[in-house]
Amino acid sequence: MVGERSLSRIGVLVTVACLLLGLLTVRLWFLQAVDAPGLEEKVREVRTRTIKLTPERGRIFDLKGRIAAGNERILTITIERGVIAKPLARSQMWARLSGALNMTVSQLEDRYQSKRYDQLQPLPLKEDVAEDLGIYLRERSEDYPGVDVREEWRREYPYAPMASHVIGFLGAIKAGSEEEYYKNLGYDPDARVGQFGVEQTYEAVLRGTPGYVKYEVDSRGRFLRQLERRDPIPGNDLQLTIDLDIQQFAEQALQNELLLRRRTEAPQVMQFGEPDPQYPEVTYYKAPAGSTVVLNHDTGEVVAMASYPNFDNRWFNAGITSEKFGQLFPKTDDPDMSILVNRAISGRYNLGSTFKPFVAFAALNTGQLAGGTEYTLVDRGTYKLVSIPEERCQLNVKCVFKNAVCGNGAPCKYGRINVVTALAVSSDVFFYKIGEQIFTERGNRPVLEEQVRLFGFGSPTEIDLPYEYIGTIPNKALKQRLAASGAIAKEEGKGYYVGDNVQFSIGQGLLSATPLQLAVGYGALGNGGKVMKPRVVRAIWAPGTPNGKSGRVDLDAGVIVKDFSAPEIVRDVQARPEVLDPIVRGLKRVITGPGVTSDIYHSTTGEKLFRSYPKRSLPIAGKTGTAQGAKNLPWNDSSAFAAFSLSKKYPYTAVAYLEKSGYGSRAAAPVVKCIFTALAGKIQVSPALAADPLDIGSFEVATPQSLSNPLCLVGSGSSVRD
Fold first, then answer.
1. Are 205 and 540 in contact (CB under 8 A)?
2. pTM: predicted TM-score of the whole model, two decimal places
3. Counting beta carbons within 10 angstroms of the beta carbon of residue 9, is it exposed (0 to 12), middle (13 to 18) or buried (19 or more)?
4. What is the pLDDT of residues 7-64, one digit of tens each?
5. Which of 57, 202, 251, 697 has the fewest CB atoms within 10 Å, counting from its CB?
6. Spans of all domains in the chain
7. CATH architecture under which domain 244-335+574-713 falls
8. Quick check: 221 pLDDT over 70?
9. Where does the record say this protein resides (predicted)?
10. What fold characterizes domain 49-102+123-240?
11. From CA 568, how far away is CA 591, in angstroms rounded?
């Protein structure tokens, strides 16, 4: 019985063994006959490593070929992940490498644990190492298995901080939607991509095409031989429309004037002819920020674009700690302190009286001013709305609007004026009447809105820079949105009223625009009515434009891939001579005078300042503007000035906007005056200076800029809030 049981067990074991042997035979046959290619592929994958090769990023140079963004070859120490997969092997490797790399074990481990780096690529341990260290590690490859020295590229900005808002910088891919976007484009998680400026807009053009090298490796991840190589293709180069000489001058003039305004006392707040005791006797302008734009109004090409506060884009490649970065670029909700904002395209501003030429256009173009320049009114300093019944005026409805206050403490009285003189002396009363009548006499239709939109207000200019603000045009829909968001009272958001249109007519109220939009609009006045699309990139060049002399590329030896220099007309406003000529005459008179005489002589808003300007060399026409600030306090006023040349040879438009800096004629106008004096060749424009090496120990986000000769800023501005 026992023997039979033993034989039975043996039989079962033999059967099981035969089944297992059969299954093994079938599996072996399947692998050899059916899945042999897949098996071989897996073996090859285990024994090979593919390393990506970073392409050289395309360079950025200015109009004259000066390299504003280039590249420096650097060495990066990497290690194969398979070598350090096990904790013990990793800790031993970190102990050996920490001394050579001058990094702590915890710093190396942090790199390993970080999700920033591609898990399928060698881990970067340290960037920008000395050549000697690279040689040392290569000579001791047996001591440091899996460690390699890779050649990569670091972005350089030879003229930093010049034009930093236009150029931009390279930064890490941000978590969230940006991370997914770049992943879908094949970027590694640790790739550095264009942030701000043309570095961001033209990322796809500048990036180039990565290459790779495929190696055979042993079981420990050590390289045995190269199997395949595909070299990376460099990115295309960009040529800007920016002239760095003019850019440097514009930045210097802007910063100089802001500094002067910070040392200037604002007017006192008066009450019944006496200083208001609730406010300090002496308050200086804060003048925290500003911008200026110079463009060719025949082509739309931006010659200079400056924004302050500015920044040195080299900080983003400097390898500084997060603590220091936070000190240089503090997070803030205070718009005065925002450094990375390009105020020329992102600033949200009232335009003040610089907007009046477009209101004059609306009135003349629609026939609202009967007889055109023949139409006159007597400006007695105040304007009372005629469309609102007297009983409503008695019920706290604002019916009376005043001019700016003159030196005697009363609203200025300009006497009999027409559209030309109204622009010259900046009469609010004249434009209040336009604002009321163009609304009430046309069935409360948005005629003024329709007309000013022709010049691009309320729409993006579509400049080739990111984060452009489109602006706002006052209307019922805007007021409803603002009321729904709590920005204005719900009662106020119920409709669009005549008072709204009156404020709109002098560039106040809910109107907002950027300095660039203002420049495009004035450019259309200067070129006969054509709204041009602005650009900061003139051409895309084939990779590797040959170097010339003194930090320039040889433009004659390069190849243009795409040329943007042909002017692009967005819209022709069809400005008839009888409409445009009076506006240009009024703006020219702002610069040259004379003013008007009523009770006293009232000079034009720019007459005093521009006495020293070379009018014969480069005649210009322009307009001052003062945007009223918080609580209507004088030190919160922002200053605007816009002008265009009357010369076909020098078809330029320039705009300056200085925040919390006072009257338009006293802060913004001097900056534009300097720029046109330089364009006229009457003041020396120094060649753009290359930057000094970045001082890593400094806590200045950018080196201050100043004019070598600031006399062009000198002059007497208007004593009236213009």
1. yes
2. 0.89
3. exposed
4. 555 655 556 555 666 666 655 555 565 555 554 554 454 578 788 888 999 999 999 9
5. 697
6. 49-102+123-240, 244-335+574-713
7. 2-Layer Sandwich (3.30)
8. no
9. Membrane
10. Penicillin-binding protein 2a (Domain 2) (3.90.1310)
11. 30
